Amino acid sequence: MVKLVKIFGHAGITGNVIADHEAKEAARKIVNGQLKAQATISIEDARKLATEIAMRSWQRQWDEHSKGRKTHEMIPNVGTKVVWPTKRDTAISYYRILLHDTLLKSDPFRTGISTSSICECGYHSETVEHFILHCPEYNSERLQLTDTVESLWQNVKDSGYAFDKLHFIVAPRSDDIVDTT
In the chain, how many domains are there? Predict the structure, then answer.
């Protein structure tokens, strides 16, 4: 048996206030006979419903929050299953990129720890994008990366991948990776 109780813990939080209002309105309509509702619900259906409600709430918060915008650009949907690197040092670098907290000069400069964001090449601010895609200091590594990504991209694109190449490179979804072996 499942017992539902009211818990006061999120008063004043916009999304939750709206959810509370909608739930009370639906309950009023059920009581007045304007809306039909099942008398019982299975545990599995309750779990699915609770998951759906939680995911919508998290998505709304993720979309509306002012923090984590760089990560949001790469992974806009809550619940996206991202393929994480298995090598620890690579995984740490990847996490730092997603958190917008790398050791590249632009991040310490942005936070006031460094006096300059200019790359050693002297051309631009040393951002992740500049470091990976544009810095002349890493042309040979970029060529190797480009060849590897292009090969993987062709396989994924041919399978119906719905996002662009940048999202595939930075935040590939686990169900979109095609085994090329």
Answer: 2
User: Are 126 and 47 in a shared domain?
Assistant: no
Predicted confidence (pLDDT) per residue in 31-45, tens digit: 888 888 877 888 998
Report if residue 5 sits inside a domain: no
> 177 or 97, which is more confident?
97
Contacts by 79-84, CB closer than 8 A, 24 or more apart: 79/55, 80/171, 80/173, 81/173, 81/174, 81/175, 82/171, 82/172, 82/173, 82/174, 83/172, 83/173, 83/174, 83/177
Q: What is the mean pLDDT of residues 123-135?
A: 89
Q: How many CB atoms lie within 10 A of CB 97?
A: 20
Residue 128 host element (H or E): helix 128-129
- pTM (2 d.p.): 0.51
What is the domain extent for residue 36?
Answer: 14-65
61 vs 46: CA distance, rounded Å: 22
